[in-house]
Design brief:
Elements (H helix, E strand, L loop, with lengths): L1 E2 L27 E5 L2 E5 L10 H15 L2 H8 L3 H14 L7 H16 L17 H10 L4 H12 L25 E2 L3 H11 L14 E6 L2 E6 L7 H16 L4 H16 L2 H13 L5 E9 L10 E9 L4 H9 L1 H6 L15 E13 L8 E4 L3 H6 L2 E6 H12 L5 H5 L3 H26 L18 H17 L3 H4 L9 H13 L15 H16 L6 E6 L2 E6 L2 H21 L2 H13 L3 H14 L4 E5 L1 E7 L5 E8 L3 H11 L4
Parallel strand pairs: 3-14, 4-5, 9-11
Antiparallel strand pairs: 1-10, 2-3, 5-6, 7-8, 8-9, 10-11, 12-13, 15-16
Bound molecules: zinc ion.
Length: 666
């Protein structure tokens, strides 16, 4: 599970209790490109110079293993993606015609959007991206790049016809979610067939259920349904073989035997595709809390499968920010206290919260489903039974959060200025949002996802297509509820105990209004984290309407949502947490579905239009993502590597093209 940046405030924290360690380059420019609804940023890697040569080598090897998985994620998103990417690369590298024409510039924007989304569907909204230039012009570029007529006849409709492969992940209940999705997790199978196939494999009484279907494509061949497993000698074999090769190299540079054992288990899994081995790897991985360098590499998150079963490939390579990790250590040391004081039915509380380890990290490489758009917090593994028996590992990514904040500072306008009600609200948020937002992420990841338990016999998959949204809501509510608890001051995480109000104001403003700037007018909310935020804000607004806990105010034609009673709002967060925990613990699909559909999906047209108008006047981009720094081996005269240096790329397309050249395996 992961968390994303919630709202872009355009401010830098002034109240951080623990700042990032390590030094940053001065006058570093974070924002390097803007197009469509996207801004591309760079991130710095504080603490890099303090790593030993061996640790740098380890990071380098792991980063190579990460980058070799790129093609997998592209192919998972849609079966035409790699073919289309190769055409784009070919045109970008070789086109000798007029590159300054409006048509070419429209083509360039399209190419950038596809690179940013790792495919032809919007990375967040999931609808197909349509080029601004004409089909004829695109065809002429393909012709000039030497594409055959048959390739043109195949790809041009896929690129231009809005009715072909229109959504990556269909969410219209009533439709066949599998057949209507452009994602490449199923072929020739209906939703009913897929559900039946896996229902036949699962044993509802298994206390340690395998994540069936996690690492395979489900295909109907000659009338028979079977799984094409993603492994060295299976589907995506050539890319996985390169990942394995670099993991094995990395193993030689590992810091300790624990890391070597973890890599061995991961390699074993990539070779066999055996999901029991994936579980073994995850258990070993979450138990390693002492190594400084760490990584994620595999088929991890199931957000992009309409049935939330098949996992997208992703990787990050990171190392611990020692000073900032103190904050998360305090939280995880007190996990049991939080569980016992959680406002839920005691039957649904975990008796013993196990091994919720948490740390603050800096990333050195993002890949697959984490590149270019990336999470700011990650909590793994996802298997409920492992979380219950062994716990989980939770990270907050400091250098990404920092890049967001500092990049926003490069802009003169901010969402807070436009959508905040008054001077007091703006001042509190400017002062405290960074620290409360970081704390929110820590609580969400370290404790929120890890809290609670299922009743015996309840399947972890019981909430089906609503499980991601409800799970994110549960973790967010846990964080919101406890941010206002006096315990935060007692633990030294907040100073006055009033700082939480900044997070409450940000959260409601974002859930009711500002996050809508990411969605096209007339569309619905589809992404799990956004649905969850809308659900929480709208539910609390409705339940507290009579008492005016949250008040809708209009001034000069502009709408604002103002919190009048923070205490009551905290109570509402607690009530909703209790209900969503009950839904999860009991597997109450109908209640979960009703909550999500009633509060999390449909957008008020007039309010949406107002938000988009006000937002567009700010001239900000709603989505951000990152290029990686290049890790460059430095050699001495006899060819020995004596250091690894970071070089900060400042050209998004250049990095995309380089990755295309260097890491193409499929
Ligand atoms: Zn989460």
């Amino acid at each position: 599970m992961k968390s994303y940046v919630k709202v872009m405030l355009g401010l830098i924290g002034t109240g951080m209790l623990f700042s990032c360690s390590g030094k940053n380059e001065e006058n570093f420019k974070y924002s390097i490109d803007e197009f469509a609804d996207i801004e591309v940023l760079r991130y710095q890697v504080p603490g890099w110079d303090e790593l030993t040569l061996k640790q740098k080598e380890y990071v380098y090897d792991l980063s190579e293993a990460a980058k070799w998985g790129r093609d997998i994620f592209w192919d998972q998103n849609c079966s035409y993606n790699l073919q289309i990417r190769k055409v784009l690369e070919n045109i970008l590298e070789n086109y000798s015609g007029d590159r300054s024409s409006a048509d070419y510039q429209d083509f360039l924007v399209y190419a950038k959007r596809v690179f940013f989304s790792s495919g032809i569907h919007h990375h967040y909204g999931e609808q197909k991206i349509l080029p601004g230039c004409t089909k004829d012009y695109f065809g002429s570029l393909m012709g000039a790049a030497g594409c055959s007529d048959s390739l043109k006849a195949t790809l041009l409709p896929v690129i231009f016809d809005p009715n072909i492969l229109s959504t990556r992940r269909c969410q219209d209940s009533g439709k066949d979610l599998v057949a209507e999705s452009a994602g490449n997790f199923y072929e020739g199978v209906t939703q009913a067939e897929a559900e039946k196939f896996y229902a036949g494999m699962e044993d509802p009484n298994d206390p340690r259920p395998i994540s069936y279907g996690l690492n395979s494509k489900l295909v109907k061949r000659n009338g028979k349904i079977c799984e094409d497993v993603w492994k060295v000698d299976g589907l995506y074999g050539p890319a996985i073989a390169k990942i394995v090769e670099w993991l094995q190299k990395a193993s030689e540079a590992a810091e300790n035997d624990a890391q070597k054992a973890i890599i061995a288990k991961l390699v074993d899994y990539y070779k066999t595709g055996d999901l029991r081995k994936w579980d073994e790897y995850n258990i070993a991985w979450l138990q390693d809390t002492v190594s400084q360098v760490d990584f994620v590499n595999g088929f991890v998150e199931d957000y992009e499968d309409p049935l939330n079963r098949k996992a997208s490939w992703e990787a990050i390579v990171d190392f611990k920010d020692q000073a900032a990790s103190k904050r998360t250590e305090i939280i995880s040391e007190n996990a049991q206290w939080f569980e016992e004081n959680s406002p839920i039915d005691p039957r649904f509380r975990k008796k013993h919260v196990k091994g919720v380890s948490a740390k603050v990290i800096n990333v050195a490489c993002l890949a697959g489903d984490e590149y270019p758009p990336t999470a700011i917090g990650i909590n793994l593994p996802n298997a409920d039974w492992i979380r219950k028996e062994y716990g989980s590992k939770s990270v907050t990514i400091a250098n990404i959060t920092e890049a967001y904040d500092l990049a926003a500072q490069e802009h003169p306008n901010s969402i807070l200025n436009e959508f905040g009600w008054d001077g007091n609200e703006k001042e509190q948020c400017r002062k405290y949002s960074t620290i409360t937002d970081n704390l929110h992420t820590d609580l969400h990841e370290c404790l929120g996802h890890a809290s609670g338990q299922l009743m015996p016999g309840v399947s972890p998959g019981a909430l089906k297509e609503y499980s991601s949204t409800l799970e994110e809501a549960r973790a967010d509510l846990f964080a919101l509820y406890f941010l206002a608890d006096p315990k935060m001051v007692e633990l030294g995480l907040l100073q006055s105990g009033d700082e939480y109000k900044a997070e409450y104001m940000d959260y409601i403003r974002n859930g009711m209004m500002t996050q809508l700037c990411r969605i096209e007018l007339g569309s619905k909310v589809t992404e799990a984290h956004m649905q969850n935020r809308k659900l929480i804000a709208e539910w609390c607004y409705e339940k507290g309407r009579d008492a005016k806990v949250i008040e809708k105010k209009v001034r000069e034609g502009k709408t604002y949502f103002v919190i009048n009673d923070f205490n009551a709002l905290r109570g509402l967060f607690g009530n909703l947490l209790s209900e969503i925990q009950r839904i999860k613990s009991e597997g109450d699909y109908e209640a979960g579905k009703n909550l999500v559909l009633k509060y999390g999906v449909d957008i008020d047209y007039d309010l949406h239009k107002e938000v988009l108008d006000r937002y567009s006047a700010l001239d900000l981009k709603p989505y951000k993502g990152f290029v990686n720094p290049d890790i460059v081996p430095v050699k001495n005269e006899s060819g020995e590597i004596i250091d690894y240096r970071l070089e900060y790329c400042d050209d998004f397309i250049k990095q995309c093209l380089e990755y295309g050249k260097e890491y193409s395996a499929l």
